[in-house]
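#onboarding

Welcome to the new folks! Below is a worked example of what a typical request in this channel looks like: someone posts a single protein sequence, and someone else replies with the predicted structure as tokens. Don't worry about understanding the tokens yet, we'll cover that in week two.

Example request:
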Amino acid sequence: MPSNKSVSDAPIFQFTNCRILRSHQLQREDLWVREGKILNPEKLFFDEKGSADIQLNCKDSIIAPGFIDVQINGGFGVDFSLATDDVQSGISLVSQKILSHGVTSFCPTLVTSPPSVYHKVLPQISVRNGGPHGAGILGAHLEGPFISKEKKGAHPEHYLSTFDSGAFQDLLATYRYLDCVRIITLAPEMKRSSEVIQELTRRGICVSLGHSVANLSQAEEAVRHGATFITHLFNAMLPFHHRDPGIVGLLTSDQIPARRRVFYGMISDGIHTNPAALRIAHRAHPKGLVLVTDAIAGMGLAPGRHTLGQQVVEVDGLNTYIAGTKTLSGSVATMDSCVRHFLEATGCTVETALEAASLHPAQLLGIEHRKGTLNYDNDADFLLLDNSLHVRATYIAGERVWSQDIFTI
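Example response:
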């Protein structure tokens, strides 16, 4: 049956012999794509009287939404926190390289830096759609400098800032440019942080709590004012204590406003978080878990010395330390490896592991109506994976942008 070209002249693609992640379940059905969007086959058949122009055999692959990484500091020799004259080239290189690891959208992340770095780097970051050139850019994630000295982690102390004098004006003076910013990590116990959180939320910027010594009540207050995310849970925050669980307590708090969900990032690289801690967090609040890589410039490169903003970092296997110390400083994990480790460490379902890297980050950013699912009319950003969750092919807007040499369809 020929396609009905009165609706659209664009070709209709039918992906067959696959299992699709839809409605939280892997379902044995075909995926239909036209003009970069996922089609409802019932409307195609009954309303348009149409059919596929091109059929593609997926060879029993899993089809899942593309991964979304909301915390990635760089990779493949590129450090997003370095003030170069051509920041876009570095971002473009990373965006192209991460396609093989299933990432179709990401937030370039800057760690604590002097104002001059933000003033030079941020104007060079622009939100853009993904494609053959690389993964889409959803906006920048600024991690610091409004964080705690006690929990600074790999962030240089002499560049940390406070809100003591001008609150939101201090933040504006530090960053100068917010048009491209999607997430800001700050410590909620800082003076006047509540009014900063409220203003950022009003502007549509996601506020994340991290690098903090906040107690639970301070964290709950931040959530009431609009914060919705926790930066790399367990890392760079007070350890869980039964009388005051701190930020970790948000996972089971009964003080979260109605219809509000708190999400939390986890670096599932086998280094930053013990598998038992991964299991505890997942079982306590499974719908809020967001896998992040927190990857640094050394991702994809041989062990050795690399940078993380103003710091020199030594990579030894999967361990990354500030040079001369044992302070962890990001990771060299790829997103697909984080998904596989999470699956193995928690014993969760395949569907749950995949959604932690797709649906949940999309929900965090409020873009689940476009990305993070294979729902009808969503962007056709998706992956073909084998049963072990190794990426076979990556598609953005229905176009294949990467595939294994041995797997081409």
